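Repro case for the chain-ordering regression, as requested:
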Amino acid sequence: MQQIFNFLIRNKNSILFLILFVVSVYLTIQNHAFHKSRFVSSANFVTGGVYSWSNNINTYLHLDEYNERLLEENNKLRNIISNIHDSISVEKQLDSTSFEGDYLFRTARVINNNFSKQDNYLTLNRGKESGIQQEFGVITSQGIVGIVDRVNDEYSRVISILNSRSRINAQLNNTNHFGSLVWDGKDPNIVQLIDVPRQAPLQKGDTIITGGRSLIYPKGLPIGSIEDFTLDQTQSYYTINIKLFNDMTNIGYVYIIENVNKEEIEKLQEVDEQ
Amino acid sequence: MNSKLFSNITRFIILVFLQVLILNNINFAGYINPYLYVLFIILYPFAGNQSLFLFLSFLLGLSVDIFEDSGGINAAACLVAAFVRPNLLRFSFGISYDHQNIRLAATPFGSKLSYVFLMVLIHHFVLFSLEMFSINHILLILKKTLFSSIFTVTLTLLSLTLFSKKYR
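-- result from build under test --
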């Protein structure tokens, strides 16, 4: 017994090292699993506070740019509105059973954004108090950003599309061929669309949009344009490099999308599975 | 002793904030960031309590991790760097380390460089290996380690020179 104690005391540093090392590796592995990182996340009171403080200064310096983006988006929306008046004003009235849209949009500010690592996250200044929940989609006026993965009262953390664990359903604009949007970790402006069947007619410069198959994003949001494409080893699926419309390295304000009908659809699908 | 404790705590806090607010946003050439917070581990009193030192290093890495949303990779890297520090000190400064009477500012540039460079290299290698978490990316890991190390070592030596107490 005495010898065991002596051994422990003599090697207390090595033992401490081993214990702490195991803890940190455990945290790392947990962080690699979707929705699992309970403890280490920047969506908490202290880090959120620090980030929003530093971001207040940063935002002020970029006001011009944000204004310009808003103008651009307003312009786009105005064009759409004027077209609606021309063509489908009658249809709109007929479809008056659902007063609210299928999707609810909220705005938020990005207070922390990284894009240089393998697994990147963003932190937003909205949380549970503003009605944000897990698995809400996050977009900008130009393209998609990611999916909310952790929420506390005032802040939320978003899994960026520049994350090795992010998989988002996307499709071609011209046809309905779809695939999964992933990132290989190399260039923050280029993401990959994999598992697109060989039959799909591809052309450089074609637009890629979100597919309606997930409950997170509405169908038809722009993502990017095709940069180049190759067939994979089995020669039956394309891997497509996509240049994002969105500059992921420079995001100021975002929209958070809530799918209002999500619960109902999920219930329906559960019934289906049973 | 008290002033030493105070200066170490201040250094801890300042380095964490400097790292997460400024240095993590540099992204030189797309992905190269300096990890200057290793300076805390490099400068920690050589004769200090080793167990406390390990624990503080872990805490330092974990603080950066929480800000960065990176799990425990910085904590693990700091821990390894702190654990091997006595060996590196002996390697770089030789016999004088065993007498515990070296002051980093007063050592020759060559041994200072080798000490700092090895510390940073080990820290960065563990950091990027855990970040990639895959042996397939070994080339990318080595590339990131090398470039970021050069950046960090340059900054570390600069700040050592700037804040050295030699002339006071």
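Ordering looks correct now. Residues 2-162 of chain B form one domain.
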